[in-house]
Design a protein that fits this description.
With 522 residues, the protein is an alpha+beta fold. It is built from 8 helices and 25 strands. The strands form 6 sheets. It has a 7-stranded mixed β-sheet, with helices on one face. Strands 13-10-9-23-24-25 form a 6-stranded mixed β-sheet, with no helix packed on it. Strands 3, 4, 6, 7 and 8 form a 5-stranded antiparallel β-sheet that branches. The longest helix is centred in the middle third of the chain and has 15 residues. It is globular and about 70 Å long.
Length: 522
C-alpha cells in the first residue's frame, strides 16, 4: 500500500472509528474483562524531525508491544522492545520514538498483553503523526487552551472545538495551558438563563470535587479523554503541552492560602502542586528532561522555518502580590533565572525563520490575583500603566535582549483569559520602549466558560487589533453551547516564509486574519 495523506488517514480513521479502536466503544471489551483494553485512547507529542513521544493507558498491568511504520498497513514494521504498565503510573505508558525519517508520516500501533495471562492480548490501537521537515515546506499548526473548566463538561455535543481543529489536519496542536480544571467540580446539570439546562452527560467521581489526591488529579485527565472529539484529535495530531494554574488550583503560587477553602482537606499548596505535576507528566506526551525531571519549558525544533519555545510561567514565579518591585529578584520573577538564561540562549542560537514563544499567560493584559477587589498581579502586568516593575522587569529585560541580540520574527501565542484577541506591541505607545515591535495572539477557551475582555496595561504599549469576547449583555462564564469557544491557526508558507495567523471559533468561522512578512537579517 502506498503512503496516504494525513487528510485521507483522518477520513479512514473516522470511518473505522478510532474511538472504537481505543477500547471505549467496542462491545467486545464488555465480556468479563477477558483481555486487556486501552482505556483512554492514544496520544503523540513533542514531535521533531527525527523523534516523537507516544502514549497510552491500559486497564490492568500489561506488557505493551510497539510497532512503527511509514505505511498505514504496517508492511515491514519496526518492532520495539515492549514496555510494562503498572499501578505505580496508573497503567500509563509512554516512550520516545527515535531515529525517524524527517517529513514522514509515522503510523504507530500498540497491543497489550495481560501480565497475569500473557496469552490474553488486546485488540490493537493505532495512531499517526508526521515528523518535522528538514527542508522548507508549508507548516500548519493550531493552538488554544482551557479545557473542561467552570463546570462545563462533556454534553451531548462533546468538546466540539477539538473536532473542528482536527478538520484542518494540523501538523501539531499546541495546548497553551489549563489543560484540566482540577479546582472546578462539575454537577450533572447547570441551569442556564431562559430556563434551559446544560447537562454533563459524562461525569466521573473525580470531577465532582476538587482534586487533592494523586488519583484525583489523574482522574481530571482521564475525564478529558472520555470525550470522542479529544480522542479523535489525539489519534491523528501530536499535542505539545504546557501547563498553568488550573492543573493545580486557581492562581497558585507560594502565597496561595487554602485555609479558608472548605473544599480542601489538604491545605498545603506544595503538596498539591507535586501531585498535580506527577499526574501532568504521567498523562501527557511531554518529553522527559534528565537534567530537571518534571521540567515543562523546552524548545521543539520544527524544521528550518519554525522553532517553538514553551515557557513555564507558573513553576518558578515569586509569590503573587502587588507586583511593584523596583528590581529583579526571585520574588519579582515569573520565569525564574535559569529559565530566562535558557530562553535567551536558545533564542540567540535559533536559525529558524520564525520563533514562536508559547506563553501560558498574556504579557499586556491585566489578570488580577484577587479579581473581586482588583488587587495583586497574577500574570505579568501589575495594572499601573507605568514603567516596568515587578514581573514586568523580567519581561522588559527579555524584550531588550531580543532587540540588542538582533533576534527577529518572534511571535507570542497564549490563551488563559478565555476569549480571543490580536495584540500588537508598539514601543512608541509604551512606557518601556527599548524593544522591537511584536505580535501576541490570544485564543481560548477550547471547552470552558467564556470570559473577558481584560484591561490593558500600557507598560509595553499593546494595541488591540481584534477582539471577540462576551458583551456586557451576554455576561460572563458563557457555556460552550453559546459558541464563543476559540482556537488559532498558524500557516507558514514554505516558499515565501510568510506567517498567516487566523483566529477561529468552534464552528470554524474565521474571525480575524493577518499575514506577517519575515524579517531577514543582513
Amino acid at each position: 500500500m502506498n503512503k496516504i495523506s494525513r487528510r485521507a488517514f483522518v477520513t479512514s480513521a473516522s470511518a473505522a472509528g478510532l474511538v472504537g479502536v481505543s477500547g471505549l466503544a467496542l462491545p467486545y471489551y464488555s465480556r468479563a474483562n477477558q483481555r486487556p483494553a486501552f482505556t483512554h485512547g492514544i496520544q503523540s507529542g513533542d514531535v521533531d524531525a527525527t523523534s516523537g513521544v507516544v502514549w497510552t493507558r491500559t486497564d490492568r498491568p500489561s506488557r505493551v508491544m510497539f510497532e512503527v511504520s511509514s505505511t498505514e498497513n504496517f508492511a515491514n514494521p519496526l518492532r520495539l522492545a515492549p514496555l510494562d504498565t503498572s499501578p505505580a503510573s496508573d497503567y500509563t505508558v509512554k516512550r520516545l520514538l527515535t531515529d525517524l525519517t524527517s517529513d514522514q508520516d509515522i503510523f504507530y500501533r500498540m497491543v497489550a498483553a495481560d501480565l497475569a495471562d500473557i496469552n490474553a492480548v488486546s485488540e490493537p490501537i493505532v495512531g499517526r503523526f508526521r515528523t518535522a521537515p528538514a527542508s522548507k515546506r508549508d507548516i500548519r499548526f493550531a493552538w488554544s487552551g482551557d479545557t473542561a473548566g467552570q463546570g462545563w463538561g462533556i454534553d451531548d455535543t462533546g468538546m466540539k472545538t477539538y473536532a473542528t481543529i482536527g478538520k484542518h489536519t494540523p501538523d501539531f496542536f499546541l495546548h497553551s495551558g489549563d489543560t484540566i480544571y482540577a479546582d472546578g467540580p462539575m454537577k450533572d446539570e447547570v441551569e442556564l438563563p431562559g430556563g434551559s439546562k446544560w447537562k454533563n452527560k459524562v461525569l466521573i467521581d473525580e470531577k465532582r470535587k476538587v482534586a487533592e489526591t494523586l488519583d484525583e488529579y489523574r482522574g481530571q485527565w482521564k475525564y478529558n479523554m472520555m470525550d470522542k472529539n479529544v480522542l479523535g484529535l489525539n489519534a491523528i495530531c501530536p499535542t505539545f503541552y504546557q501547563w498553568d494554574d488550573h492543573e493545580v488550583v486557581n492562581n497558585w503560587s507560594d502565597s496561595k492560602n487554602l485555609s479558608a477553602d472548605d473544599r480542601y482537606s489538604e491545605k498545603n499548596i506544595h503538596v498539591l502542586a507535586a501531585r498535580a505535576a506527577r499526574a501532568f507528566h504521567e498523562m501527557t506526551t511531554i518529553r522527559y528532561e534528565p537534567s530537571e525531571p518534571g521540567r515543562v519549558y523546552r524548545k521543539i525544533a520544527y524544521g528550518p522555518l519554525l522553532d517553538v519555545f514553551f515557557l513555564d510561567m507558573r513553576s518558578y514565579r515569586g509569590a503573587n502580590g502587588p507586583g511593584m518591585q523596583d528590581t529583579v529578584t526571585p520574588k519579582s520573577r515569573i520565569l525564574g533565572e535559569q529559565q530566562m538564561k535558557w530562553l535567551k540562549r536558545e533564542l540567540a542560537n535559533s536559525n529558524a525563520t520564525w520563533k514562536i514563544i508559547a506563553a501560558d499567560m498574556p504579557l499586556g493584559l491585566v489578570v488580577w490575583n484577587d479579581a473581586t477587589n482588583k488587587a495583586g498581579a497574577e500574570a505579568v502586568s501589575n495594572g499601573d500603566n507605568g514603567p516596568a516593575k515587578g514581573r514586568e522587569l523580567e519581561i522588559a529585560d527579555l524584550l531588550r535582549y531580543i532587540k540588542n541580540a538582533g533576534i527577529t520574527n518572534t511571535v507570542w501565542l497564549t490563551a488563559d483569559v478565555h476569549y480571543t484577541a490580536a495584540h500588537y506591541y508598539n514601543p512608541d505607545k509604551a512606557q518601556f520602549q527599548d524593544f522591537n515591535p511584536f505580535w501576541e495572539f490570544v485564543s481560548g477557551p477550547l471547552h470552558a466558560g467564556t470570559y473577558g475582555p481584560n484591561d490593558f496595561d500600557m507598560t509595553f504599549g499593546p494595541e488591540l487589533k481584534f477582539i471577540k469576547a462576551p458583551t456586557a449583555e451576554q455576561g460572563q462564564n458563557l457555556p460552550p453551547s453559546a459558541g464563543l469557544q476559540f482556537f488559532g491557526l498558524v500557516d507558514i508558507d514554505g516558499a515565501t516564509e510568510q506567517m498567516t495567523v487566523r483566529l477561529m471559533d468552534r464552528d470554524d468561522n474565521e474571525l480575524y486574519k493577518v499575514t506577517l512578512d519575515p524579517v531577514h537579517s543582513a
